[in-house]
## 1
Amino acid sequence: MKEVVIDVCTLPAPEPMQQIIKALAQLPAEQYLKVIHRRQPFPLFEQLLKSGWDYQCNELSNELFHIYIFKKANKATFSALNTQFSLNKKTIS
Amino acid sequence: MNLVGASFDSLPPIDLPFRFFISAILFPIAIAVFILLSGEEPWSSRWHPAMLTITHGFTLGFIGCVMMGALLQILPVVGGISFPKIRFVASYSHIFHMIGTLSLMLAFILPITFFTLNAAIFLSLGFVLYSSTALWAIFNTKSKSATISGIRLALLMLIVTVIIGVLMQLRTLGINILGLEKIFTDIHAIGGLFGWVSLLIIAVSFQVIPMFYVAPNFPTWLSNYLPSSIALVLLLLMITPFINNLTEELVGLLLILQCLYSVNLLIVLHRRKRKIPDTTINYWRLAAFSFILLSCLYFFPKQYLHHRIYQELIAPKQELLFAAVFIYFYLVSILQGMLLKILPFLTYTHLQQRCLMNFSAMQFLPNMHKILTKKHGRFLFVFHCLTGISLISTILHPKFYWLFAGLLFVEFSFLLAISLKVIRRYQTCMAKIIKQSETDN
C-alpha cells in the first residue's frame, strides 16, 4: 500500500476538512492517506465511518496527530502495516 | 491516544443550533423597541423594573440562547461527544427557555403572579433539562482536555445560578427561602455572568482560537488552572458574605484572573501564523481591551477621583456602567463575533460532510468566505461599536435612549438579515447536493 501525505497543520477550520476530502476524492485504490493535523477532527471520523472509510489516529503530542485514512475494504492490508506506525507513536490509551 | 475507528455521535442537525441563534438575535431587536417605548426612566437605576427586563433580555435572551446553541455544536467538535437524545433535549429546552425568558421579562414590568410562576417553572425546566444532559455527556467522555473541564465547571455554575434565580423569583410569590438580603442578587449576577457565560467562553476559546485562527495554543498553566481558579473564587464569593466580608477582595481577584485571560488572548491572537484580516478577531480584541479597561477603572484609587464630573455624573451610575461595559463590550462582542464565525462554519461543515459520501457533489460547495462576506462583518462591527458608545452615553445622559434603541435595532436587524441569508444559502446548496446524489445513484 502506498502512502499519500497531506499536512493541514497551518490551515484554519474548515480548510483541513476541505483538503482531506479533495485528497480522498483523488486517492487511487490500494493507497491510503496520511493526514498531519494539529487536532483530532472528531466530526470527520464519524463521517468517514459512514462513508465506507476507516481510519487510525495516532497522537504524537498535544499539537500533533497523524491520521491514517483507508478504504474499509483495505483494512486487512493496512493492519499489516500498522506495526510500523506503532513504533513511531506515543500510545496513551 | 490511539483512536482506531472509534464511533462518535453525530453532529447535531443544523436546524437545532440555528433555532437558538435566530431566537437569540430576536431578543435585542425586541429590547430595542421596548427601550424606545420606555423613555428615560429605566436608566435611573439598575433596580428599575424596566431595566431588569432589559438586562435579562440581554443575558437570558441573547447571551443564554447563543451559549446554549453553540454548546450543542461545539461539544462534538472539541470533544467528540454529543448530547444524548439531542433533538428532544434541544427542542424542549429551547421552547422552555423562550417561554421562561419572555415570562420573566414581563414579570418585572407587569407584576402578575402568572408571569412570575411561569418564569420560575419554565426557566428551571429548560436549564435543568439542558445542563443535566450536557453534564451527563461530559462526565461520560474520556477526554480530559482543559476545554471539557472548563465546560463542566461552567455548567455547574449555571445550575447554582439557576437555583438562586428561581428561589429569588419564588420570594416574590411569598415563598421566602433565601431571606431578603440583596447579596443574593449580586451572587446570582456574578455566578451567571462570570461563572456560566465567561467561564464557558474561556474554556471554549482554548480550542476554537487555535482552530479558527491558526494561533498557538494558550499556555498550559493558564488552560489547566484558570477555569478552576475562577470557579474557586466564585464559590468563595458565594460563601463568604455569610462568614466574613471579603467580597471586595474576591471581586478584585476575579477581575485579575479575567484580565490574565484577556492579556493571554491578545498575545495568542497576535502570534497567529496566518495574519489574514478578520473582523471576528476585532471582536475578540475589543472584548479583551474593554475588560482590561474596565478592571483598570475598578482598581483606580477612588480618593483621587474628586473631580465634579466623576462625582456628579459617573459615581451614581458606576454599577450600571460596569455591568453595561461587561455585558455589551465584553460578552456581547465575543458572542456576536462567534456568531459571525460559526454561522458560515456550520453551514460549510454540514454541506462538506455530505460530499464525503459523494465526491461529485463538491462542485456545489460554496466558497466559505462568500457565505458571509467580510464586508458585512466589518459593517456589523462598526455598528456594534457605535451602539456600545450610545449605550454608555444613555447611561450617563438618559435623554439619548432613542439613539441607543435605534442603533441596537439596526445592528441586530442586520445580523438577523445576514443570518437568514446564510440559512437560505445552506438550503439552496443542500438541495443541489441531494439532487446530485440522487442522480449519481
## 2
Amino acid sequence: MIDWMKYRWLYLLISGMVIGAGIFGFGKWGLKYGIDFTGGTIIEYRFPDGQIKTFHETQEFSDPKVEQIRFESVGPSIGPDLVKKTVIALIMSASGILLWVAWRFKSFKFGLSAVLGMFHDSFVLIGSFALLGHFYGAEVDFLFVTSLLTILSFSVHDTIVNYDRVRELKKKVGGDLYNLANLATSETMARSINNSFTIIFMLLALILLGGETIKWFAVALLIGTVSGTYSSPFVSVAILVTWDKIEKKLKRR
Amino acid sequence: MTPAKKLILIFALFLGALYVDSPFQSKFNLRLGLDLAGGSHLVFEADTGKIAAEKKSLAITSLRNVIERRVNFFGISEPNVQTSNFEGHDRVMVELPGIKDTKQAQSIIGKTAQLVFMKVVDLPVEKNATPSSTLVPTDLTGADLAESSVVFDRNTDKPAVSISFTQAGADKFEKITGENVGKKVAIVLDNELVSAPVVQEKIAGGQAQITGNFSLDEAKNLSIQLNAGALPVPVSLVEERTVGATLGAESIAKSVKAGAIGLIMVVFFMFLVYGKLGLVADIGLVVFGVLTLALYKLIPVVVTLPGIAGFMLSVGMAVDSNILIFERFKEEKGKHITVADALEVSFGRAWDSIRDANIATLVTAFVLANPLDWNFLHTSGPVRGFAITLALGIGISLFTGIVVSRNLLRVLVKEKRK
C-alpha cells in the first residue's frame, strides 16, 4: 500500500505554491472584469469577410453587409449586486454542503475539511484567472461566477467518495484515521482519475469547438475539475488527517 | 419483477423518449433561450423613490402587468417578464425572443406614457407683462381610457391617435369640455405638452383625438402605450443584451459538434478502460442522452448556451456512477463465487457514495437554480439554465447509471452462466 499521507506536507506545499502564484497575480494585476461587473457596452459586428470585431460604441458602416450580431449594455448598478449575490450564493452552498457532509459522516471535522478543499479550489480558480486575464485576456463575467459555484460541487463530489471509503473501512478494518485515509485514497484513486478524464474530454471538446462565448467558462470548469480531483485526497483528506493527528497529540498531554 | 421485464419497460420508455426527441413530431419542441434563438434581454429599474413604502409592491405588480401588456401588443411569441428586488433596487426583466428592432421595443416599454388632460388657466396680467397662462391638471387621465387607435387626421392627413373613454371618463370629458368652451384644453404626456386644442363645444359620447406632430411610428407606439396603460412609476433601462439570430444558430452548430465529439471520446474511453462493462455504461449513456433531450422538451427547459455546458458536464458525471461501480467490481471479483454476486455487491456498496456525492452537487445546483425566486440569489436566465440542466442531468444519470446498467448486467451475466 502506498503511504499517501506521509507526504501530506508536500501536497499542502504544492497547493500553497499554486495558490501563492495566483495571489501574486491577483495582487499585481487583479482580475480582468467584464462589463457584467464594471458596466459598459460591447457591440460585435461581423464583416462580409467573416471577421468579427468588437467595439464599445455603436459604429456606422457604409457597407450594408456589415451585421451587428451582439449588443450588450450593462448599467453600473448591476456589478455590485452581482458580487453580493455571488457571495451569498457561495456562503449558502458552502454551508449547505458543510452541514450535509457533517451529518452524513457524523463529524464536523469531515465537513469542515471538505469545505476547506472547496475553498482551495475556488482560490486556485480565481488565481488562475488573474494570470489568464493578464496573459490571455480572459475576462471575469457572469459565467465565471457560475463556474466558481459549480466547482464547489465538483470538489466535494470526489471528497465524499473518498470519505465514504474511509467510513466503510472504519467499520470493516478499523484502525486509526491515518491508515484508513491511505487505504481509501489508494482504492479511490483509479475511479477519481478515470472520472475526471470523462469530464475533461467533454470540457476539452467544448473549449476547442464550442465557440468564443463559452470558451473561458469551459476553461474555468476545467481548472475546477483538475483542482477538485487533486484537492479531494491531497487537501481535504490531508487536512482531515493532520487535524486528527494534532487533536490526538493534544489529548495525550 | 424480473430484470428482463424491467429492461422491457426501460426499452419502452426509451422508445417513447426517442419519439419525443425525433423531428418527425411537431407537438414537442425544444425551447431555445435568447442566446441561441436570438433576441433581446432588457432590464428596467423602477424609480420608486417617490412612492410610499406600503404602496410599493402594488406599484411594482401593476408595473409588471403594464409592461407585460405592452410587450404582448408588440406581437412577440413567448415573451417573459419578471420582477426582482434586491437591496432597494426594483427591476423588471423583459425577454423578447426573435426581436429585430430593439430600439423600438425599448421606447415602447420604457416610456411612462402618463396622459393627463389639463385646463389652461390664464394668470392675472400685470402691467407691461406679456399675458401668460398655467396648466391645471383635471381628474381626467390615461386611466379613463377605454381604447385607442391610430387614425389619420381629416384636415392634415397626418397620423393621430384616436381615443375613446370609459363611461366615467366620458362624463368627466363632457364636464371639462362644457366648462371650457372657447378655451384651450391641454393634452400632456409625461410632462410634455402634446397639443392644446381650443374647445369648440361641449363634447358628449366620450370620443377624442390627439393630434400632435406624430410620425406614424410614434402614433403607433403611443397607441400601444395608452392601450396598455401608463407605467405607475418611471423606469430606466439598466441592462440590455441582444444576440443576433445568426450568431445563435452558429452557437448551436458549434455546441452540437463539441457535444458529439466529447461524447464519442467518452464512449471510447469507457470501452478502452472497462471493456465489455464499459459498453454497458455506453448503452446507459445513450439512454441518458435520449431521456435528457426528451425531458428538456417535455418540462420544458429553456436551453441556453451555459445550459448546454451543464448538459455536457452531466454527461461526464453520468458515467461516474458506472466508474464507481466498475472499480468496485474489480475489487470484489476475487472475493465472491460468481460474477453475478460480485456485481450485486458492487452496486450495493457503491450506492452510498453515489447518493451522498450527488446530493452535495444538488445543493449547489439548488442555490444556482434558485427555484423559489429568492431575491438575494441570482435571477439571471443563463445561470439558472445551467443549474437546471445540471440538476436534471444528475437525476437522470442516477437512473441510467444504476437502474439501467444494473438490470442490463443482471440479464447479460445470467445468460452467460447458462
